[in-house]
Design goal:
The structure is a single chain. This protein starts with 10 loop residues before the first helix and ends with a helix. It has helices spanning 11-17, 21-33, 38-50, 55-66, 72-86, 101-106, 118-121, 124-133, 138-149, 153-165, 176-187. The model has no long low-confidence stretch (mean pLDDT 94). The protein is 62% helix and 0% strand. It has 189 residues and is mainly alpha-helical. Helix 4 packs antiparallel against helix 5 (72-86). Bound molecules: iron/sulfur cluster. [4Fe-4S] cluster binds at residues 22, 101, 117, 157. Belongs to the eukaryotic-type primase large subunit family.
Length: 189
């Protein structure tokens, strides 16, 4: 699934238009804090790999941000290995797959961590605020909040997809990379 034309330099654009809320949130945190914690790096790094970014491009994404607060040497020593590992280039050479929604939803998110699924892991006030920021009308926001309350996180995400793309989704969102691909089909025909 290497069909997108995403390049590292266009991530800001894509993250706003075509990323699901989980990945958009992580991207914003990366840009604003120049750092992500371990499990966040895994969730986002594997998603980027799933978009078709090469190892070199992924290294560039991380290096460009992390070296705003540390020197290149520290980045290479502490963080580059993990990126290569995600691409199966070092260690056990496993070709890790991007996480599905279910894996992300079932994971634990501790204080100060930003991975996870916003529909599951954000508190109600934070989620509502995010939906309002994204221009979701009030009645639709209420509907999404009800779905979330009833633990229908992926259906809430699908509703969010449909509202932001003005089109029905082909099926319930079950993978962040599926979200991106469906978005790409609608927006980049
Ligand atoms: Fe991301 Fe899946 Fe949650 Fe949507 S339902 S925000 S794609 S984890």
């Amino acid at each position: 699934d290497n069909k997108s034309n995403v390049r590292a330099e266009f991530l800001d654009y894509y993250s706003k238009k075509q990323f699901p809320l989980c990945m958009r949130h992580i991207h914003q945190v990366l840009r604003s804090t120049h750092h992500l914690k371990y499990r966040c790096r895994l969730q986002y790094g594997l998603f980027l790999k799933g978009l078709g970014l090469s190892l070199e491009e992924c290294l560039k994404v991380w290096r460009d941000e992390f070296t705003k607060t540390m020197d290149e040497n520290t980045f290479e020593k502490k963080y580059a290995y993990g990126v290569k590992h995600q691409h199966g280039k070092v260690g056990g050479m496993v070709n890790y797959k991007p996480y599905s929604c279910m894996t992300i939803i079932m994971g634990n998110v501790g204080p100060g961590e930003h991975h996870g699924c916003p529909f599951k892991h954000f508190d109600a006030t934070q989620l509502r605020q995010k939906l309002v920021e994204d221009g979701i009308p009030g009645t639709d926001t209420d509907e999404i909040m009800t779905l979330v309350k009833d633990a229908h996180y992926q259906i809430a995400c699908t509703k969010y997809f449909e509202l932001t793309h003005h089109k029905q989704s082909k099926s319930v969102i079950n993978h962040p990379n599926q979200y991106f691909d469906e978005s790409d089909e609608i927006l980049n025909v």
